[in-house]
Amino acid sequence: MATAIPTPISQKITLYPAEDRFFGPRPAVLVLPGGGFRELPPHEGEGYARWLSGLGIHAFVLSYRLLPDRFPAPLEDARAGLDHIRNGDHGLDVGRVGVIGSSAGGQLAGLLMTGQVLCIEEGVADPPRPDFAILAYALADLDLLPPPVVENLLGDLLPIKDELSPAKHVDASVCPTFVWATAQDPPGLPNALEWTRALAAAGVPVELHVYPGGSHGIGLADGVEYGGEPHKFIAREPHTASWTTACAAWLRREGVLAD
């Protein structure tokens, strides 16, 4: 039987360097789009990356493994992505390294933040963790999703549902976090509130924004399409789109960006 050759992580990453007007060491962010582990919407990948680049942040968009590959495959890719940013041969001068994750990508971001190692993994010790995190309507706890959705997502991994619920593993070692969602997002809002509760209870610096308009998966909320194809979640909500301004201010407050 032939053995599949693993794809180098560098081939799964699309790099968007900080704009040329920025000099010296720059922060970097691993971008983890959502999509329910079935797709990787470009507006949560390239869209975020272009915004970050304009702030002076190197953005690394990761095409992590999707279904039928299940955990730990996407988590392995996310860890390798963080390692690549810190140690990879990408030729950039990188400072602090963060992560941004939307929806399912936010679940991955959360598992990175907490340093979670799954019982189905072997030989994993001291996994890489980000220095700061941005969570967009990110999955915090699988108990907040309808059971049929969880069963379809996890398959035979259902017994480790709690291990895959990152908010259950938050402690004081987790990085500062910016959380946002909209009030019209049934999965996003309760998960954003749970993220905030867990982080605050552990004494982790956290900032939460809830906007009145916009559905799940809205991304930048600027209505701009990426990747050449329209996506059902792309919409323009000007007030919700101000989350990027709030997040940039938070990045400055946390010292990730200079004033």
Automatic annotation (TrEMBL):
Residues 47-218 form the Alpha/beta hydrolase fold-3 domain. Pfam families: Abhydrolase_3 (PF07859). It comes from the Bacteria. Signal peptide: none annotated. InterPro entries: AB_hydrolase_3 (IPR013094), AB_hydrolase_fold (IPR029058), GDXG_lipolytic_enzyme (IPR050300). GO terms for molecular function: hydrolase activity. The keyword Kinase does not apply. Keywords: Hydrolase. This is Endo-1,4-beta-xylanase. The lineage of its organism: Bacteria, Bacillati, Actinomycetota, Actinomycetes, Kitasatosporales.
